[in-house]
Amino acid sequence: MEIPSEILTIAEKLSDSGYKAYLVGGCVRDLLLNKKPKDWDIATDAVPEDILRIFPNSIYENSFGTVAVKTNSSDEVLKIVEVTTFRLEGRYSDKRHPDEIKFAKSIEEDLARRDFTVNALAVRIKSGQSRNGIIPIRDYPCLRRQAGLEKCLVDPYKGRKDLESKVIRAVGDPTERFNEDALRLMRAVRFACELNFSIEENTEMSIKDNAGLLVCIARERVRDEFARILLSERAMFGVQLLEDFGLMRFIMPELEKGINCGQNKHHIYNVWEHSLRSLDYATKQNYSLEIRLAALLHDLGKPDTKRGEGPDSTFYGHEIVGAEMAQRVLGKLKFPKEIVEKVTHLVRYHLFYYNVGDVTEAGVRRFLRRVGPEYVDDLIKVREADRIGSGVPKAVPYKLRHLLFMIDKVKKDPISPKMLKINGDVLISKLGLEPGPIIGAILDILLDDVLEDPAKNKEEILLKRAEDLSSMSYQDLFVLRQKAKSAKEEFEAGIEKEMKKKHWVK
To answer: pTM of this prediction?
Structure first.
């Protein structure tokens, strides 16, 4: 690991101007863990006006003493480096923002306001320490675990010891830290996930005691921390910690309904355990945030749709109820519209029945028409997570592999009105039809014909069929259209058949 030349240049310019400069927070923590820092922060005793004088090409648009220094680096992480004046913070009336910020005189005072000991670390950088603008970490005495480390590592809260012990511990009184910014309740869990650390006992107890403070935090900030937990390598562990610490009820209480919701003979885990194991599979496969959310939420509707108890209990329609719930809970957390729509769609269609030999090519085309070919790959990933979360040994059994084969076989066939060889304009120009609902009805019927047999997707065939349809009475045409639109999807028919078996009805 190396300290980038951009960082050293900023620090040395501050030092040359008579000010102190320290690397602080997460970048020091990551360097000590031999990880590449995600960002670089510098703390200094120079006030914002002094920083702006030293670095004229900078931006200062806040009241927190943080100046964004531009570096012209080609590295996106280093294009802008935040340089912040040592500061003290007053009371936090809203549990989110300090009522008052004052500039401090020392780095020790600045570190006292930080959240956890592993982030309350600083490294002094002085002018003349670099060689060719770069200091290899292995040659930098303050970052070597040797006797000279204390010369430039500032560690008033024994953060280095907690790093070595792999412990997340609040700086000072944990209750004070969480009352300053209640989002730290979730940040403790996130750091435990990302670093593979445990949470110190007093810090854990304080999280449990102060979990209710999370209601004071903007939903966008809660969403961002929750997403980072889900994107960590220990997402399942993180979600379980959120529940154990009493935080989940203030994030996504709908998930908690699954904790005591037992399932039927097709599952060995309750809904909560199954959902977490599904998430764990998606995490281990390094799937996207949308897939991880869908894996966690795909059975959100089961508690509300459960009928009966024991091995023959049912959850008929849980995918529909679950999709509505997923849309609602993700909306409350202010997830972007495109994420909400995708996850909701995956939850809605995660349940499908496919049996080799029972479903025709026409059925597969209708399946693609219903779920959208652009969603198929992700839908299969959710289905894999669902299977592994149920305790079965194979994520992709022969049935799923055969389905993928069938999808590949028919994927170029027409499955939407846009893929028909004629459109409304053709019907108007060649058949003399008037614009209106009759055009839409005819196209729906033609599409169903083509879904059944793609060979019919030829202009002359479709025009002849359309001409015959146009001669029908208005009532008969719309009856035929409704029949086409409600043509029994073979996947859904299979689900219905399975459900009837469970309900002992024919």
So the answer is: 0.83
